[in-house]
Design goal:
Strand content: under 5%
Distance between the termini: 183 Å
Radius of gyration: 50 Å
Order of helices and strands: HHHHHHHHHHHHHHH
Length: 364
């Protein structure tokens, strides 16, 4: 056992020491023998010890079967692992600034998910084991999100590698997306030269509906995020406010004193919604004032109404009511006297002159 720790100290030293081929072969055989003698029971060894053996096996280039065995053992107890256990450096390049071995961690996480599926298939997720399995899944999800945020600052980490690690994390193990958002923000900050398409691919692994209010407030002002992601965050936050105001969280208002954080969040969301309504009323009032000003300016402007006027015909004078009546009476007057009267010109003294019927005309 002491020799294993000495070997681990040699691996984690400054650079890889050049040793003779014979010594390397002896150490490789020693590690492979230790791994073959390990007990097969679950939780028989700590994850930290298994991770140390895995680093030694990778460094000494042991057989593939030896490394795969260690990866499966770690996957069985991944719920007990810590972040340092997964930070396995990549020994492909013998430089001081080494990359973390992303593929090994991805395989470990894949094996863990397969074991969970087998347990669910054979009915191990009954009422007795279901809470423990759910708690372990959430713990592993948080661990992988922390691992993703840790390796995101590596300038040599490609977009495909980042997405491959993010996609292997089950969504049901992520209660909120705050840790995933932190990892994405760290990666975008460390890689400012990414194109819009690449930034959209990176942000596609995040579910904006599961962000908390604090994360939404930060994402709405984050210039590193693409515009489409910011719009989604704002949309789901507004939808959450509507659900609160529609009474979808009415049970939270009637909760006891133990649920004070929930009631405080509901009241704070209500205040924000009231502020939004107040701003909307102010905008409507301002719009009405602008419309009134436009109507006044339109009324003050003279409008010419042109009517067609015929210049050839003179404008006829309209008869009054008295003149029309007097004209009718004159006609009736002529009818009443008949041919016995002759209308005289207006310049003569008499209005009419009777004609004698007794006058006879002589032929002579």
């Amino acid at each position: 056992m002491h020799m294993i720790f000495l070997l681990f100290q040699e691996i984690t030293g400054n650079g890889r020491k050049m040793t003779e081929l014979r010594q390397v072969h002896e150490k490789r055989i020693f590690v492979e023998t230790i791994v073959s003698l390990l007990p097969r029971e679950k939780n028989a060894l700590s994850v930290s010890f298994l991770a140390m053996l895995l680093r030694a096996a990778i460094y000494l280039e042991t057989t593939v079967a030896c490394r795969v065995d260690l990866e499966r053992r770690i996957a069985l107890q991944l719920g007990q692992a810590v972040l340092d256990d997964l930070l396995i450096p990549s020994y492909s390049s013998f430089t001081e600034d080494t990359l973390f071995d992303v593929e090994i961690v991805q395989r470990i996480m894949t094996n863990f998910i397969e074991y969970e599926m087998v347990e669910n298939r054979f009915g191990f997720n009954d009422e007795e084991y279901a809470p423990a399995l759910a708690s372990e899944m959430e713990k592993v999800g948080e661990l992988m999100e922390d691992y993703l945020a840790k390796i995101a600052s590596d300038n040599n980490l490609s977009v495909s590698q980042f997405i491959s690690i993010a996609e292997v994390i089950p969504e049901k193990s992520r209660i909120t997306e705050d840790r995933m958002y932190k990892a994405i923000d760290t990666y975008l900050k460390a890689h400012p030269a990414l194109s819009d398409v690449e930034r959209k691919r990176v942000c596609s692994v995040m579910n904006c509906q599961k962000l908390t209010r604090e994360a939404c407030a930060h994402a709405a002002q984050n210039e590193r995020l693409p515009v489409q992601t910011v719009v989604q965050v704002l949309y789901f936050e507004q939808q959450r406010l509507r659900q609160v105001m529609n009474g979808s969280l009415a049970d939270a208002d009637q909760s006891s004193a133990d649920n004070n954080p929930v009631t405080d969040e509901v009241s704070s969301l209500k205040r924000e919604n009231q502020d939004l309504k107040f701003e909307l009323v102010k905008m409507k009032t301002r719009l009405k004032e602008i419309e009134k000003c436009g109507d006044k300016s339109a009324a003050s402007t003279p409008v010419e109404i042109t009517t067609p006027i015929c210049s050839d015909k003179p404008r006829l004078r309209r008869k009054s009511f008295i003149s029309s009546v007097s004209e009718k009476l004159g006609k009736l007057y002529l009818i009443s006297f008949g041919a016995d009267h002759v209308i005289m010109p207006s310049g003569s003294k008499g209005r009419y002159k009777p004609i004698s019927r007794d006058r006879r005309y002589s032929i002579s």
